[in-house]
Amino acid sequence: MRLLLNVLWFVLGGLPLALGWWLAGLLCFISLVGIPWGRACFVIGGFALWPFGREAVSRRELTGRDDIGTGSLGTIGNILWCLLAGLWLALGHLFAAVGLFCTLIGIPFALQHLKLAGIALAPIGKTIITRA
């Protein structure tokens, strides 16, 4: 079932969505200061390409250790990201989810947009894992 949903997602908008995240990542890499956000954009782009059966989790919860993205610098980075780009990306995913919730067939896709909206608000310090 995951494969079918992922293929439908890919065909019906997942590829342009992932390309948009990857373009944002490339733009972030132009400056050295934007590299953490660029890396996060590439991770989210892969998640946006094939979201069913995967989820975003905190690296701190996964590994049990802090790193630069899960500490205070990561928090500051997430606040800056949220104010500059994350809020707008999350709102876009939220509006897409609301539209998809109006149809019975769109509900699984709406749930994926809600996951992407959550990670769009605070991507630094997160990693994508496959659910069993």
TrEMBL record:
It comes from the Bacteria. Keywords: Cell inner membrane, Cell membrane, Membrane, Transmembrane, Transmembrane helix. It is a multi-pass membrane protein. The chain crosses the membrane at residues 30-50, 71-88, 94-111. It is found in: Cell inner membrane. InterPro entries: Inner_membrane_protein, UCP028777, YccF. Residues 4-54, 76-126 form the Inner membrane component domain. One of its GO terms (cellular component) is plasma membrane. This is Inner membrane protein YccF.
